[in-house]
């Protein structure tokens, strides 16, 4: 028995590949026809081949375990790709660039004249209570005026098929290595499909990233020294740090590999002595960057790094303090921020968001907690959330108290019926599973958006949680150009 | 290349070589025990002395019997000098440098460690030991071959190679040392065949018997074997050859003056010694001195390439 799209039940919400009546959407037609032509046996063989490829390629995410050393858990992967048409993607790219451009202007403004606050568009008290605002960054003008050089925004689609931005990750967004590796796996597993149609390539990301980073170098004319800075092997994203360093041909440095000299320049310790570092792609949080400026107990950073950065002797990507715009309360202002700085309407919408500092909105939320999702303003990875429809009365009461006590710390959103896409499940059947999408935006002299991004999938039936630590997996994301044939 | 990374690669290679050579060392002793008549049961004590940590052994074990010694040297994680600990340390060093070496090397080393850990129980008793140790030696060689066959001859490669040959030079002196112990103190003519057998077994443990036969056409005699294992220029486990490879590797690296000079000094020392004069205590003393020189050599390498921070923190 092969896959029968007629019996695939996509009615619960918007499905990415299958439209009403089991008819594949235009961009997915070839894939669906091809999958249908495979027997169960063949499908299983492809799946096994993909799993083997993942093992052989060593694509892992690290879970550290004292007893057995580390466990590099194989990355859970589904072989049915998620497809977006090139036409829709074009528009989405524009929307992402628009958004990140405005966010960069916003961050620069907050550490500069704060015009947006003076003009009453962004309330002063929001700023004063922001956890990720870094006073250490006030008055600094980073190269090209860019703060968030690498941004990973999470996109979701609701039951109507509309795409929304769910959140912006402006600190150290991760996942891009899996996007790249997923494509490698798919090319090995379904080479014939890549021949037959125009699936736009994703592989140039490391080169784009390297060019963007190189352009930040404070020294003219020389070949810039770029390093990837990692907190070390125990970090869950170490695979990615190491992968990107390798792909870019950069050193993968830890804090202890670098020092700041008396000239306030950054040097790394090499076998030939000290070598000047021009650009640091840091995959470590602000607060651990420099024990002199932030947490004095941190051993992960480099003493004096902020001094070197402030003097313009080294570039940091993302710039310290960029996380101020990562705040979910700030998120609710992004449409206003786009209008304020760019005088344009947002191309991609926000998920409707209630601000709990507003008494009217707060009353509404408190009365409807059972239908809403409540999120803390400054957490990532899905921690500390209340999912109303799945919550108990006790949990709702707890959240009501938390909100009343500190409304600035929370936002609320309607529970979205995330879109689904066909996924091969444990039993070998093909069933709908909920997904999101994380594209990556590079803000260099020419902005760059990944071709698609990382599609994360909740492998459990009905689950809305796509995080890999909680039973999520991923898929390759195809931007298919149906007009190119 | 970052000093930390260079240091990790160098140690990864040293620990991997150490694991292999420890396996060879235990093999040679196991063979000796089988070959010699019972009245010459010299036991396992020398192995503890030769590999280092007598004090630690006494803390952990009551009896100095075969089982305890082999367990201590093969499987005991509490002994930082055991095979399992060496593999673990090799793996930890490679873990942080995975972006430098081919992926397959990491996978194989990881696999080797996991397999060794699961099977150590069969490596301790006599019956499964030979097979366990031989498989281990073969897997180590496989990784060495993989690195040789797939890595560019860049700085990373030279650090790996220098580490491997420095460790091998050191371990060859230790394996020879097993025989320097007072095994057959009162020599009489009826023991001559056994003497041959013992040296043959040293050669075999180093996979040196065939090569020895090519180079030395006489019967297996102590001075010839010593000359071969210490001074031969071409045999890849001979001390002089190993030191030559260390020099050749270091010469590709920046600022190699002092370390290369230090290797030359040790090499000259080994080349010039008159092996006819090395008998038992003399041999043991000579090997001891050689091990100290090799340790100093490491100190030189460390100061030149790995300890950049101390020098530069105050100055330049």
SSE arrangement:
The complex is a heterodimer of chains A (485) and B (316).
Chain A: H1 29-37, H2 40-57, E1 60-65, E2 69-74, E3 77-85, H3 86-110, H4 115-118, H5 124-128, E4 150-157, E5 163-169, H6 176-189, H7 191-196, H8 205-214, E6 226-229, H9 238-248, E7 251-253, E8 258-260, E9 266-270, E10 273-276, E11 279-282, H10 305-310, E12 315-317, H11 328-331, H12 334-342, E13 349-350, E14 354-355, H13 359-367, E15 372-376, E16 386-387, H14 393-405, E17 410-414, E18 420-424, E19 430-438, E20 440-442, E21 448-449, E22 454-458, E23 472-480
Helix pairs in contact in A: 2-6, 3-12
Chain B: H1 3-35, H2 45-51, H3 54-60, H4 66-74, H5 83-95, H6 103-123, H7 126-150, H8 155-180, H9 192-205, H10 209-215, H11 222-231, H12 239-250, H13 257-272, H14 281-306, H15 308-314
Summarize the structure.
In chain A, strand 9 (266-270) and strand 10 (273-276) form a beta hairpin. Chain A has 485 residues and is of the alpha+beta class. Chain A has helices at residues 29-37, 40-57, 86-110, 115-118, 124-128, 176-189, 191-196, 205-214, 238-248, 305-310, 328-331, 334-342, 359-367, 393-405, and strands at 60-65, 69-74, 77-85, 150-157, 163-169, 226-229, 251-253, 258-260, 266-270, 273-276, 279-282, 315-317, 349-350, 354-355, 372-376, 386-387, 410-414, 420-424, 430-438, 440-442, 448-449, 454-458, 472-480.
């Amino acid at each position: 028995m092969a896959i029968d799209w007629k019996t695939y039940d996509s009615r619960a919400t918007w499905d990415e590949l299958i439209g009403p009546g089991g008819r594949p959407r235009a961009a997915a037609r070839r894939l669906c026809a091809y999958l249908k032509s495979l027997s169960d046996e063949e499908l299983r063989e492809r799946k096994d081949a993909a799993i083997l490829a993942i093992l052989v390629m060593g694509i892992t995410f690290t879970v550290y375990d004292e007893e057995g050393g580390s466990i590099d858990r194989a990355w859970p992967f589904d072989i049915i790709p998620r497809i977006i048409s090139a036409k829709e993607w074009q528009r989405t790219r524009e929307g992402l660039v628009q958004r990140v451009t405005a966010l960069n202007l916003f961050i620069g403004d907050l550490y500069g004249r704060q015009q947006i606050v003076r003009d009453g568009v962004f309330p002063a008290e929001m700023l004063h209570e922001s956890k990720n605002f870094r006073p250490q960054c006030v008055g600094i003008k980073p190269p090209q005026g860019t703060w968030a050089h690498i941004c990973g925004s999470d996109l979701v689609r609701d039951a109507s098929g509309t795409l929304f931005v769910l959140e912006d990750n402006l600190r150290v967004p991760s996942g891009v290595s899996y996007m790249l590796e997923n494509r490698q796996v798919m090319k090995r597993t379904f080479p014939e499909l890549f021949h037959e149609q125009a699936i736009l390539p994703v592989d140039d990301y490391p080169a784009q990233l390297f060019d963007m980073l190189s352009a930040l170098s404070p020294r003219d004319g020389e070949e810039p020294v770029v390093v990837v800075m990692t907190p070390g092997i125990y970090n869950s994203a170490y695979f990615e740090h190491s992968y990107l360093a390798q792909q870019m041909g950069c050193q993968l440095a830890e804090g202890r590999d670098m020092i700041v000299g008396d000239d306030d320049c950054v040097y790394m310790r090499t076998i030939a002595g000290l070598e000047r570092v021009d650009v640091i792609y840091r995959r470590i949080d602000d607060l651990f960057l420099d024990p002199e400026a932030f947490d004095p107990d941190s051993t992960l950073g480099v003493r004096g790094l902020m001094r070197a950065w402030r003097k313009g002797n080294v570039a940091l990507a993302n710039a310290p303090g960029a996380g101020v715009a990562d705040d979910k309360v700030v998120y609710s202002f992004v449409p206003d921020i786009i209008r304020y700085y760019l005088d344009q309407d947002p191309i991609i919408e926000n998920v409707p968001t209630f601000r709990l500092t507003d008494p009217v909105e707060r009353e509404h939320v408190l009365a409807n907690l059972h239908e809403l999702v409540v999120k803390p303003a400054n957490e990532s990875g899905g921690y500390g959330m209340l999912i109303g429809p799945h919550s108990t009365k006790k949990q709702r009461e707890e959240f009501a108290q938390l909100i009343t006590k500190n409304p600035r710390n929370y936002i609320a959103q309607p529970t979205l019926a995330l879109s689904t896409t066909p996924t091969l499940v444990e039993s070998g059947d093909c069933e709908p599973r909920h997904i999101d999408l994380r594209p990556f935006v590079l803000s260099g002299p020419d902005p760059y958006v990944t071709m698609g991004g990382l599609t994360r999938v909740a492998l459990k039936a009905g689950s809305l949680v796509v995080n890999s630590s909680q039973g999520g997996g991923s898929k390759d994301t195809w931007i298919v150009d149906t007009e190119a044939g | 290349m970052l000093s930390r990374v260079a240091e990790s690669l160098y140690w990864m290679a040293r620990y991997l070589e150490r694991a292999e050579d420890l396996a060879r060392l235990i093999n040679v002793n196991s063979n000796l025990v089988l070959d010699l008549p019972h009245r010459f049961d010299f036991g396992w004590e020398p192995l503890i002395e030769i590999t280092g940590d007598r004090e630690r052994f006494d803390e952990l074990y009551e009896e100095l019997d075969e089982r305890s010694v082999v367990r201590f040297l093969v499987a005991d994680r509490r002994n930082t000098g055991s095979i399992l600990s060496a593999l673990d340390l090799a793996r930890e060093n490679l873990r942080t440098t995975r972006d430098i070496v081919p992926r397959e090397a990491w996978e194989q080393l990881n696999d080797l460690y996991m397999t060794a850990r699961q099977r150590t129980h069969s490596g301790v008793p006599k019956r499964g030991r030979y097979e366990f140790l031989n498989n281990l030696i073969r897997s180590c060689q496989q990784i060495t071959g993989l690195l040789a066959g797939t890595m560019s001859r860049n700085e990373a490669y030279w650090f790996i190679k220098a580490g491997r040959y420095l460790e091998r030079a050191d371990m060859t002196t230790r394996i020879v040392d097993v025989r320097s112990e007072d095994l057959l103190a009162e020599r009489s003519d009826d023991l001559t065949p056994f003497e041959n057998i013992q040296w043959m077994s040293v050669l075999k443990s180093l996979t040196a018997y065939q090569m020895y036969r090519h180079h030395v056409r006489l019967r297996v005699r102590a001075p010839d074997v010593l000359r071969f294992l210490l001074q031969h220029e071409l045999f890849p486990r001979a001390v002089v050859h190993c030191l030559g490879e260390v020099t050749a590797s270091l010469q590709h690296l920046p600022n190699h003056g002092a370390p290369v000079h230090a290797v030359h000094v040790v090499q000259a020392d080994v080349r010039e010694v008159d092996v006819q004069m090395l008998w038992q205590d003399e041999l043991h003393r000579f090997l001891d001195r050689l091990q100290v020189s090799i340790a100093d050599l490491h100190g030189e390498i460390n100061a030149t390439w790995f300890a950049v921070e101390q020098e530069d923190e105050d100055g330049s």
